[in-house]
Amino acid sequence: MNPTIYTIILLSLATGTIVTMTSFHWLMAWVGLELNTLAIIPIISTLHHPRSTEAATKYFLTQAAASAMILFSSMINAWNTGTWDITQMSYAPSNTLLSLALALKLGLAPAHFWLPEVLQGSTLPTAFIIATWQKLAPMSLIYMTMNNLPSTILLMWGLTSSTSGGWSGLNQTQTRKIMAYSSIAHLGWMAMIASIMSNIMIMNLLVYLMMTTALFLSLICSKSKTIQDTATTWTTSRTLAIIMMLTLLSLGGLPPLTGFLPKWLVLEELIMQNLIPMATAMAMSALLSLFFDLRLTYFTTLTLSPNTLQMKFKW
Predict the structure, then answer these.
(1) Residue ranges of the domains in the chain?
(2) Reaction catalysed (predicted)?
């Protein structure tokens, strides 16, 4: 793609997110979301390959449907309360519809089926944008409407996302799909704590963005599209392999590392709210995510690709 056009598209992407994050009127929030969606469609379909075209179509349809649902729920709320203010969502049916729309926008289970397909059909840099930057606008809407969203629905979506993200990621061999299911599981933890403690949700989001960015940049540098590709990382760069190992273990939530902190705080808060069965189920689902992250770590650092003796290490 032409660098000038690419720059304009990325600026539009940034503008859409910032408009949504800074608006107090539902119409402006919707405009920001639509701008965001329309800006990323050409980035996904740059390859002109049937799979990337399919990914762009799937992404557009789901995001357009979610945006329409957000606009519809805000219209119902405005009809009943007389205000378009985002923080004044006091009509119960529109709150339920809004939570469903935001779940579809983010990729929370059971509305998560589009996310792995879209990431698999995109290039690694595009998948990186979808998994990180595209989560900011819907998460900001959740943050602003959190006091009014139905907490039972958020808790159930958090549990189903964490469980299905862990289960579905177990049998994947493509790194982009593994990252997609890992993203679904992490979003489940954020949805779980959203209605209880907003500060922990923000910290969870920041830690997720930081670790996902580090891992995607490592995958882009090593050109790893499958688990088999990660086995050759050690021959390219030992430093990169070690960084990938630490990032993967942190993303899985292994205790001494950064990724464990948000999970620990979420579990502590759930126990304080007397949601002990929910906390137990979330802790069990975290083990599923940790398993496939550990498997990826094993392939990256503890196995060597079948090279001949004459073949020198690149580093």
Answers:
(1) 1-118, 150-305
(2) a ubiquinone + NADH + 5 H(+)(in) = a ubiquinol + NAD(+) + 4 H(+)(out)
| Residue 38 pLDDT grade (very low, low, confident, very high; cuts 50, 70, 90) | very high
The letter for the amino acid at 167 is: W
> Mean pLDDT over all residues of the chain?
89
Contact yes or no for 19/28 (Cβ under 8 A): yes
Q: What is the pLDDT of residues 109-136, one digit of tens each?
A: 888 889 999 999 999 999 999 999 999 9
The rounded distance, in Å, linking the Cα atoms of 289 and 266 is 16
- The packing angle between helices 238-252 and 276-297, to 10°, is 160
Q: Is the peptide bond before 3 cis (omega within 30 degrees of 0)?
A: no
**Amino acid at residue number 269:** E
Going from the C-alpha of 43 to that of each of 37, 130, 191, the distances in angstroms are: 10, 10, 28
Q: What is the pLDDT of residue 314?
A: 56
Q: Report the amino acid identity of residue 161.
A: S
Q: If you count DSSP H runs as helices and E runs as strands, how many of each does the chain have, helices first?
A: 15, 0
